[in-house]
Amino acid sequence: SLCRVARLTPKNTALFVCDIQERFKDIISCMPTVIRSADILIESSKILDIPIVVTEQYPKAFGNTVPELKIENTEKSPVFAKTKFSMYTDDVKNHLATLPNVKQVILCGIEAHVCVQQTTFDLLENGIGVNIIADGVSSCHAPDRKIALDALRQGGAYITSCESVIFELLRDSRHESFKQVSALLKKPRVDVGLN
User: Fold this and answer.
1) CATH 3.40.50.850 matches 13-172
2) In terms of pTM, does the model score above 0.90?
3) Bridge partners, residue 138, by sequence
4) Share of the chain above pLDDT 90, in %
5) pLDDT in tens, 161-186
6) 18 given a catalytic annotation
7) Catalytic residue among 18, 19, 30, 108
8) Which pLDDT score is estimated for 85?
9) Which DSSP string corresponds to the chain?
């Protein structure tokens, strides 16, 4: 029998960007790497016409999404304020209902062991596959991130990387957007020991 494999295509996928906000910039472990991965995924999603969903945890207290991510609150990349830890709020559920082809979510953001983990389990319980970007999630304390990735894998999520997901979406070096998207991967890496 065939094993269960989540195949990502631009038509069946959405990008979820979880709470990458100004207030957390200096307290999250390896935040420059998280921002780099999120930036590449956001820009790639715009090129490949993949829907983007962004949340901000209580922005009155924690500020808005970091400016490096160039998020515009538009129909194609709505930004939802939340107090719940999970991104899977009523507003996000209603938005997903307008995207009936979405069967897979690429998820990046913070914190891995709280908002990312609860979002993942909510999506999985509702029949949506989740692909966690290992170099795109983190927590204040590095051990929490590692424990969360283990729990997420055990719970049924796929743990992958920014670059792996990009090439999965492209599938072929002859893809019309290959040069444009693969050029994004040349953004300087910040080797800060995410493992």
Assistant:
1) yes
2) yes
3) 110
4) 87
5) 999 999 999 999 999 999 999 999 98
6) no
7) 19
8) 98
9) ---------TTTEEEEEE--BGGGTTTSTTHHHHHHHHHHHHHHHHHHT--EEEEEESHHHH-SB-GGG----SSSS-EEEESSSSS--HHHHHHHHT-TT--EEEEEEE-IIIIIHHHHHHHHHTT-EEEEEEEEEE-SSHHHHHHHHHHHHHHTPEEE-HHHHHHHHH-STTSTTHHHHHHHTTSPP------
Of the candidates 18, 30, 82, 108, the residue annotated as catalytic is 82
How far apart (Å, rounded) are the C-alpha atoms in residues 105 and 114? 17
Annotation marks residue 19 as catalytic:
yes
Where do the domains of the chain lie? 13-172
**Per-residue pLDDT band at 1 (split at 50, 70, 90):** very low
82 among known catalytic residues: yes
Catalytic residue among 18, 108, 115, 162: 115
Average pLDDT, integer, range 38-54: 97
Strand order in the sheet with 129-138: 79-82, 52-57, 13-18, 104-110, 129-138, 158-160
Q: What are 73-116's pLDDT values in tens digits?
A: 888 899 999 999 999 999 999 999 999 999 999 999 999 999 99
